[in-house]
Design brief:
single chain; mainly beta; Elongation Factor Tu (Ef-tu), domain 3; seven-stranded antiparallel beta sheet; 3 domains; 336 residues; Jelly Rolls; five-stranded mixed beta sheet
Length: 336
């Protein structure tokens, strides 16, 4: 049984009654209304397909596209039954990705008045039978570490737009010999069937099998600003920020409104101790130094005082300094 036509009634009092019964069947979500299938190409659903889609992606990650938006849409649950390869759940046009389902993961989607599909519930293998939305999702495309700061993801023809899915600010988590590591994506670029991802934060010395995941929330920010001429060194030059919780620190961007002639160097401290062995520095005639990585393993304790120092200023001073620190709640690593 692969479509709702297998369940349709045709022997009732008249066709009108049969039609009403068939609409009830389509929304009943009974387990018998399931399609179990192995797919080797994109699968596009219609309103005639059963609400339960139990699918296995053969040969590679496969797209599953939802039915064209209509008032006749019914709720749809998609489950990845396979042992490898992901199911990428998209809208009918293939332009919006709702979820990337690793083996054992599932998603439940609703059509809101035939105007928009919404991801209602999303679970995974480890979340339990009553789980709701999960925070971490397996990185699709068979990710492979290429250096301490880069990894590659397979995306044939850029069909899945993984460079958009795992873009700047995305938080990553993985394990190295069962030790949890975290980082933030600073770039994701596509070329020749491969997305190359560059990170800051913890050093990626290795990745335990199937442990690399991306978070549902992008990195948060702490922002400081120093107005006017940046003409003198100093400590705690822009006030302080008290950590509201244990903060996993990834890195920082610094900018000048107007470039100086010389080097402007900033230090970012946790209770007076630097978090950056290599300090962010803007060189002569430039206005920014972006994607600076904090020391690997840096975590600021709850209620720590975070401050910025000016360690060096340009001979001809720059004007208006902006500092952005990237972080995520360290407790997120314990979420499913």
């Amino acid at each position: 049984m692969t479509t709702l036509n297998d369940f349709y009634k045709t022997d009732l009092v008249d066709d009108h009654v049969a039609g009403d019964v068939n609409k009830l069947i389509a929304t009943s979500l009974r387990a018998e209304h399931a399609n179990t299938e192995t797919i080797s190409a994109t699968k596009t659903l219609t309103d005639g397909d059963t609400p339960f889609q139990i699918l296995t992606a053969s040969g590679a990650d496969r797209d599953v596209r939802l039915a064209v938006l209509s008032v006749s849409n019914h709720p749809t649950l998609i489950y990845n039954k396979g042992a490898s390869n992901s199911l990428v759940v998209k809208d009918n046009a293939g332009s919006t990705t709702f979820a990337t389902l690793a083996p054992g993961e599932w998603a439940f989607l609703l059509s809101i008045s035939g105007v928009a599909w919404k991801l209602a519930v999303y679970s995974n293998t480890n979340a339990g039978t009553n789980a709701g939305l999960t925070f971490w999702t397996a990185v699709p495309g068979s990710p492979t570490r290429t250096s301490n700061t880069t990894l590659e993801v397979t995306d044939t023809g850029n069909a899945n737009k993984y460079d958009k899915l795992i873009s700047k600010g995305t938080c990553l988590k993985w394990t190295e010999s069962a030790s949890v590591k975290q980082a933030m994506v600073i770039s994701a670029t596509y070329a020749t069937n491969t997305v190359t991802v560059t990170i800051i934060g913890d050093t990626m010395a290795s990745i335990d099998a199937n442990s690399l995941k991306y978070g549902a929330e992008k990195a948060r920010e702490v922002n400081w600003a120093v107005a006017g001429t940046i003409g003198a060194t100093g400590t705690d030059v822009a006030g302080h920020f008290y950590a509201p919780m244990e903060m996993k620190i990834f890195g920082a961007d610094i900018r000048l409104g107007t470039a100086g002639n010389g080097t402007t160097t900033v230090d970012i401290n946790d209770d007076g101790t630097t978090m950056f062995t290599t300090k962010p520095s803007i060189t002569t005639t430039n206005t920014s130094d972006l994607d600076n990585t904090a020391d690997s393993g840096t975590v600021a304790a709850e209620d720590s005082k975070l401050t910025i120092d000016l360690d060096a200023v340009a001979g001809t001073a720059g004007v208006d300094l902006y500092v952005k620190l990237f972080w995520t709640p360290n407790l997120n690593q314990h979420l499913t």
